[in-house]
Amino acid sequence: xxxxxxxxxxxxxxxxxxxxxxxxxxxxxxxxxxxxxxxxxxxxxxxxxxxxxxxxxxxxxxxxxxxxxxxxxxxxxxxxxxxxxxxxxxxxxxxxxxxxxxxxxxxxxxxxxxxxxxxxxxxxxxxxxxxxxxxxxxxxxxxxxxxxxxxxxxxxxxxxxxxxxxxxxxxxxxxxxxxxxxxxxxxxxxxxxxxxxxxxxxxxxxxxxxxxxxxxxxxxxxxxxxxxxxxxxxxxxxxxxxxxxxxxxxxxxxxxxxxxxxxxxxxxxxxxxxxxxxxxxxxxxxxxxxxxxxxxxxxxxxxxxxxxxxxxxxxxxxxxxxxxxxxxxxxxxxxxxxxxxxxxxxxxxxxxxxxxxxxxxxxxxx
Length: 366
Prior knowledge:
This protein has one domain: Aldolase class I (TIM Barrel, Alpha-Beta Barrel), CATH 3.20.20.70. The chain has ten helices and 14 strands. The protein has helices at 71-77, 99-107, 173-179, 186-192, 209-217, 222-240, 254-257, 261-264, 302-314, 328-340, and strands at residues 49-50, 59-62, 82-85, 116-117, 119-125, 128-130, 165-167, 197-201, 245-248, 267-271, 275-276, 291-292, 318-324, 344-348. The strands form five sheets. Strands 2-3-5-8-9 form a five-stranded parallel β-sheet. It has a three-stranded parallel β-sheet with strand order 10-13-14, covered by helices on one side. The chain starts with 48 loop residues before the first strand and ends in an 18-residue tail after the last strand. The model is unreliable at 5-45 (pLDDT under 50).
């Protein structure tokens, strides 16, 4: 999922959607809610330990609206163990946002169990350039369907219809400098702001037809180049933080295409295993979710995702999944099927502009 740069400041607040899920969750694993309290010692100082990745039971995902009034407070109050968030100061229009301060507040806020605090992971699109980021220069020209952009590392428009997003030649040293090797790189900003890791979008760039053609023309193996790119990201981050988490989103089949891949990552996130939504939607849009993913087929299907995620589970990797639905029966189905497969599920809407109104069964306070 990528942000819509033209719609990022449009947040139509629908009426509160009340979904009674308890009776719909037959077959879902049950969790015991914890008391809504932050532990402290005799001096009143907050005490506790940070959740480990293996200890994550509930996670949440928000990419838009974090700069809105009350958004960070809502994240602090939430009882998710792991949050994947937009590193908002990398947005050119929100360059003054105190991302580091947000991370610090979240690190001292309660997770789902008493005595544990949240993990906070930064969203980072490693396979596409986004025209609202600080690195996008006024002189840059976006690519079209028939012509590469300027600089020529910009290959084509986003194939799924996300405006302002452009697949890149991720093997190009200029792009690697933007993402990794620069005191002002996207990765360095995440490290400087204190995030516990990164959640990498558009790893699937290697399989995009236009990108693969560009790689071939450059004498590059697109699969090998993506794995090498992630390896470089990991090495750079681990030199500064040995515990820094490396979490790709999607491209689950990559574990079957390259023997080294599973050893480079700590977990995987997978979108739309069961229900999808349209690109460039906002929260109130009816088509921001509830699109059933085909049951079978190569690539985009529930069967494909479940089969290609199996090696991650077998290797002991955490599998986070996010489905896009709002109809109560679809929400219940997504949670039930994901939990049955051993995934840690989250059901929201495609804009990801606020915390979900349909939290997982057993979520504290639900």
